[in-house]
Amino acid sequence: MQLYLNQRLVTRYSRIGRFLVGFGMAIMGAGLVLSFVRPQEVNLVLLTAFVGIIASQGGVAFVNRWARHPRVDEVLTQALKGLDRRHAIFHYLLGVDHALITPSAAYVLVPRLDEGKIEYRDGKWWQIREKKGLFKRGGRRALGDPEPEAMKQAKHLQNAIQRALPEDDAVQVQPVLVFVHPEARISVSGSAVPAVHVKKLKGWLRQQPKGKGPDLAALDAWARQKLGLES
Q1: Where are the domains of the chain?
Q2: Which residues 6+ apart lie within 8 Å of 135 measured at CB?
Q3: What are the backbone angles phi and psi of residue 189, rounded to the nearest 5°?
Q4: N or C: which end of the chain has fewer CB within 10 A?
């Protein structure tokens, strides 16, 4: 399988995350010092603490997504390892976070981090978690509706492929919800958008009907130009 990763974007966001964490901690430290030096400036101390907390929490979110391993893109790539070179996965490049091009179709992979049992019944998505310990509640809760967002991403990928390959106006994109949490268990049928655990993704792909995917050679040339790689 061919891999195309927008490493510059990953590196940029990783650096932003680390900067925000460091900046936030520095601001909170300055606020602590200020609380001792000028305790009468209550509003300034509170503002400094607030800015520091917001910056550090935002940085943590960036670091968790972009700097910690394995990242979601690494998990997806590993799950598809072994597919031949007629397959290619594009991370953060084709208008969506994760796009898979196969000889038969184009897929947008929409990762989900939910754990527990995932069900789809009567048009609704549910998450059922077991109670573990004192601070982790179990029970059943609605997952909302992930299908519209998945369909939206499919449209984004379709538009991106058509921009890259303007002569190919018959591209159809299939969205797939991919649950990546190790403790997720999928029990879904009848939904508009397929759902599969990442460990079963490769097997699921092999069961899909044959069709015609986008021109991978043309996408390869387009991606190499975007990434600044040699032909």
Answers
A1: 2-66, 72-227
A2: none
A3: -150, 145
A4: C
CA distance 61 to 17: 7
Read off the pTM: 0.89
Signed CA dihedral, 209, 212, 217, 219: sign only: negative
Q: Is the pLDDT of residue 134 over 60?
A: no
Task: Give me 111's structure tokens.
Answer: 């990762």
Residues paired with residue 110 on neighbouring β-strands, in sequence order = 177
Which pLDDT belongs to residue 167? 80
Is there a contact between 133 and 119 (Cβ–Cβ < 8 Å)? no
Q: How many Å apart are CA 174 and CA 100, to the nearest integer?
A: 10
Phi, psi of 197 (to 5 degrees): -75, 145
Number of neighbours of residue 91 by Cβ within 10 angstroms:
23
In 45-146 the beta strands, taken as DSSP E runs, fall at 88-91, 98-101, 106-112, 116-121, 124-129, 139-142
* CA pair distance 144, 126, nearest whole angstrom: 8
